[in-house]
Amino acid sequence: MPGFDAVIGFLYQFGDAAAFLVLCASGLAIIFGMMGVINLAHGEFIMGGAYTTVTVAKLGVPLPLAVLCGALAAGAAGMVLERLVIRHLYGRPLDTIVATWGVSLIASQGTLILLGPSLSDISTPLGSVEIGALSYSVYRFVLMGVAAAILLGLYVLFNFTRFGVLARATIQVPHMAETLGVDTRLIYSLTFGIGAALAGATGGLYAPTMTLVPTMGVQFITEAFVTVVVGGGDVFLGTAPAGIVLGFIKSGMTTWEGQLAGQIGLLVAVILVIRVLPRGISGLMLRERA
User: How many angstroms separate the CA atoms of 129 and 31, rounded?
Assistant: First the structure.
């Protein structure tokens, strides 16, 4: 039987992995699941949020407000990108792949040229807590709570507010919504901005825990896409279960054979899901409801 410390350590790794996956994927799930846009620049929005958060925090601003600034900066950049590029590519998923890939290259290489190969980081707040014989980062527990709070906030936003009703109507039947007087262009722009802002918030939240480099978005985008593919198109039904399942797989494989095994486990999981559940977990749940 595993000891108490081993069980607590596994649960901590599981919660940390699940929170990371949910936070990475939430913004991407909105943009892809609700708008049908494959955004390969998602990682660069995360990077932008992290850079903004650290820059603002170094000016003496408390970390929560600095993270908010990072989210707002990424959201504003996302709305600009939607107006200038994405708006002309709706219904053309292959074109959005090429366009957002180009934007990601411009953003990462531009950051490298302007700000250098790395940015000095900030320390992880809140210290640590001892459980049994091991010590755990309190900030990681906060990230777990934030991931759950973001999912709950998105559910309330898109199901119980006027904006949520208009967003769902615009995405499901845009021509009918426009006929009824809805400014569909504004709704698309705001929805894309929310997805980008969530990416920026993710970067800001994880900025104190990692080294900031212009290519840091790559560390996030792979796991974000894996989570979205496994979860399916419905951000509310798919993202949380996918994060839990993949978090369990990643933490279990990492505990068994190290971090590389955890990454391999995620990739094997997404291959199996594509084969067995092409519409992901949410597609299965919606089919069972029907």
Answer: 37
**Segment 106-112 long-range contacts (CB within 8 Å, at least 24 positions apart):** 107/41, 107/44, 107/47, 107/48, 108/44, 108/47, 108/214, 108/215, 108/217, 109/214, 111/47, 111/51, 111/214, 112/214, 112/215
| Tokens (6 digits) for 240 | 């949380």
Q: What is the 3-state secondary structure (H, E, C) of 171-240?
A: HHCHHHHHHCCCCHHHHHHHHHHHHHHHHHHHHHHHHHHCCECCCCHHHHHHHHHHHHHHHCCCHHHHHH
Q: What SS3 state is found at 134?
A: strand
Length of the chain, please?
Answer: 290
Q: Which residue has the tokens 């094997």?
A: 268
Which residue ranges form the domains of the chain, and what is each CATH number?
Answer: 4-289 (1.10.3470)
- Each of the 290 residues of the chain gets a pLDDT tens digit; together they read 457 777 888 888 888 888 988 898 888 888 887 777 888 999 999 999 999 999 999 998 999 999 999 999 999 999 999 999 998 888 788 888 899 999 999 999 999 998 888 887 788 888 888 887 778 889 999 999 999 999 889 888 888 888 888 887 877 777 787 887 888 888 889 999 999 999 999 999 999 988 889 988 888 888 888 888 888 766 667 778 888 888 888 888 887 777 778 788 888 888 888 888 777 777 666 565 54
The answer to whether the CB of 32 falls within 8 A of the CB of 228 is: yes
Q: How far is CA 208 from CA 19, 64, 143, in A?
A: 16, 12, 12
**How many whole angstroms separate alpha carbon 134 and alpha carbon 2?**
15
Question: Per-residue b/e over 228-243, b at no fewer than 16 CB within 10 Å?
Answer: bbbbbbbbbbbbbbbb
Helix (H, G, I), strand (E, B) or coil at 277: coil
Tokens at 48, concatenated:
């932008």
Residue 125: both structure tokens together: 């707040």
